[in-house]
Amino acid sequence: MNRAPDPGHALELAWRPESAASSLERWQQVCAQERWHGVPGDAEMLVRVFGASWYFTRFLFYTGAAAAIFIDRPLPVPASAADLSQQFTQDEGGGDAEAILDRLRLRRNEFMLSALVRWLRGELPAAELEAALTRLAEAVLGAALSAFGLRPAQLGADFAVLGMGRLAGAEMGFGSDLDLIFLLPGDAEGARVSRRVQRFLRQIAAAAPLGPVYEVDVRLRPHGTAGALITSLRSFVEYHCAPRETWERQLMTRCRPVFDPAGIGADAVARIQPHIYARHDPGVLRRDIAAMRLRVERELGRPRGRYELKRGHGGIMDVDFACHYLQLAHGCRAPELQTCSTREALRVAQRLGFLSTSAGAALRDGYEFLRRLETCLRLFDLKNISSFPMGISECLPLARAMGYGAAGPARFLEELQRTAVSVRQGYQEVVDPNIS
After folding, report:
1. Could you tell me the pTM of the whole model?
2. Contact yes or no for 326/430 (Cβ under 8 A)
3. Domain locations in the chain as residue ranges
4. What is the share, in percent, of the chain residues with pLDDT greater than 90?
5. Can 125-276 and 282-430 be said to share one CATH topology?
6. How confident is the model at residue 1 (pLDDT cuts 50, 70, 90)?
7. How far apart are CA 20 and CA 156, in angstroms?
8. SS3 labels along the chain
C-alpha cells in the first residue's frame, strides 16, 4: 500500500526546514483563499522544493496552481533541443520580442521545475539532468534569436552561434550562464547584425518577475572584450589557426555550434580542430596548464572562511585542467578525445591507457561529487556561485542536501576534504606532481 503524502515527514528532511515550513504555511493559506483543493497532490515534493530552492518557491507563488501541476506531473525530459524548439515555436503566438521572451521565461521555468522534481525523485541521474538542461538552453536560445530577427532568413545572411564551456559539453546546471560566440560569414553585415545582437543580449539577461531568460557571457570570443562582438568566419579561423597560448587551446576543447542553420559554425569548428589538437610538446603543456591552474587558485580559489568548489584546492577546475591536458597531449593521435564532454574524455583517456585506473577513478568520482554539490548550492537562487562558508552551522543546508542529515555537517566536511585531496592527487598524477 502506498503511504499517503506526509508534509511533516518531508519537513524533517528538507534542506532548509524553517524556510520550507514558512512557505508551506503560506501556500496552504493561498490554497484556502483560492479554493485549490489538494494542489499539488504530492505535498511532500512541494515541501522538498520549498526547502531546496527559493527561486522555485517564488515561481510557484507567482504562477500558483498553473505551476503546481508540475509537482505532480513533471514535463517529460526532452529527447532533443529540436523537440523543444518545435514546442516553443508552437507556443510563440505572435507579439513583440519582449512578449515572446516572457513566454520563454515561463516555459523555461516550467521545464526546469519539472527537471528538479525528477532529479529529487531520483529519476534523473546527474549527467542526464545536465544534458536535459543543455537541450533546454539550446531550444530557448534558438527561439530567442528568432524573436530578435537573428535567423538567417530574417537577416538575409548566414549566422551561427558557438557554445563554449558547459554548454558545449552538455553539462549545464541550474544557474549556469551561456558562454557564446557569434559568427557571420563575412564582415559586410557585421554592424547591422551587431546592433541586433546587443539588443538581444540586453533583453535576454534583463531582470523580470520570472527571472532572466539566461545570463550570457561573450568574453571568450577572439581578442576577448577588445574584439568585435560579431566575428567573421575568416577572422575566427585565422585567429585560432595562428599560434595561441595554451589556455586558449584549453578553452577551445569546449566549443561546438549550438545555433547553426546554415552550417557555418560546424565549418568553423572543423577548420580549427587540427590546430587545437596539433602535436603539442607535453612538457610545455604541463608547464603552462600547471602555471595557469596555480594562478587561478591563488587569485580566486582561496576566499577566507569559504571553500571554492570550482577554483579551489581539489576543485572542479583540477578535473577540467587534467582533462584538458589529456585531450591536448593525445587528441592528435586519438580523435576520440576530441570531445566537449568532460566525462567522455576521462572515460576515453582511461580506456586508451593515457590515464591510470586510480587517477581516473579519483577524477571521475570527485567530479560527480563536486558537480552534485554545485547543483545543491546553486539551486537556492539559480545564481552562478561556487563558494560557501565552511562553518558547521552555516553548511548545514548543504550537508542535508548531500544526504548527510541534520547531524551530518561534520561528516559532510570530512567527505569534502577527502574528495578534494583525492581530486588533487589525480590532477597531480596527470599534470603537476609539484603542486601542493
Report:
1. 0.94
2. yes
3. 7-72, 125-276, 282-430
4. 81
5. no
6. very low
7. 52
8. CCCCCCHHHHHHHCCCHHHHHHHHHHHHHHHHHHCCCCCCCCHHHHHHHHHHCHHHHHHHHHHCHHHHHHHHCCCCCCCCHHHHHHHHHHHCCCCCHHHHHHHHHHHHHHHHHHHHHHHHHCCCCHHHHHHHHHHHHHHHHHHHHHHCCCCHHHHCCCCEEEEEHHHHCCCCCCCCCEEEEEEECCCCCHHHHHHHHHHHHHHHCCCCCCCCCCCEECCCCCCHHHCCCEEEHHHHHHHHHCCCCHHHHHHHCCEEEEECCCCHHHHHHHHHHHHHCCCCCHHHHHHHHHHHHHHHHHHHCCCCCEEECCCCCCCHHHHHHHHHHHHHHHCCCCHHHCCCCHHHHHHHHHHCCCCCHHHHHHHHHHHHHHHHHHHHHHCCCCCCCCEEECCCCCCHHHHHHCCCCCCCHHHHHHHHHHHHHHHHHHHHHHCCCCCC
Taking CA 275 as the corner, what is the angle to CA 292 and CA 185, rounded to the nearest 5 degrees?
110
Cα–Cα separations (whole angstroms), residue 332 to 273, 314, 325, 337: 9, 28, 12, 9
Residue 245's pLDDT band (cuts 50, 70, 90)? very high
Sequence-separated (6 or more) residues with CB below 8 Å from residue 236: 181, 183, 222, 268, 272
Residue 429: all three cell numbers together = 598524477
**CB under 8 Å to 74, separation ≥6 — which residues?**
113, 114, 115, 117, 118
| pLDDT tens for each residue of 131-146 | 999 999 999 999 999 9
Phi, psi of 255 (to 5 degrees): -150, 125
Instruction: Please say if the pLDDT value at position 4 is more than 70.
Output: no
Q: What percent of the chain stands above pLDDT 70?
A: 96
CA distance 387 to 385: 6
- Name the residue among 348, 328, 324 with its Cα closest to residue 336: 348
CA triplet 300, 305, 306: central angle to 5 degrees? 55
Cell of 111: 521545464
CATH number of 282-430: 1.20.120.330
Architecture of domain 125-276: 2-Layer Sandwich (3.30)
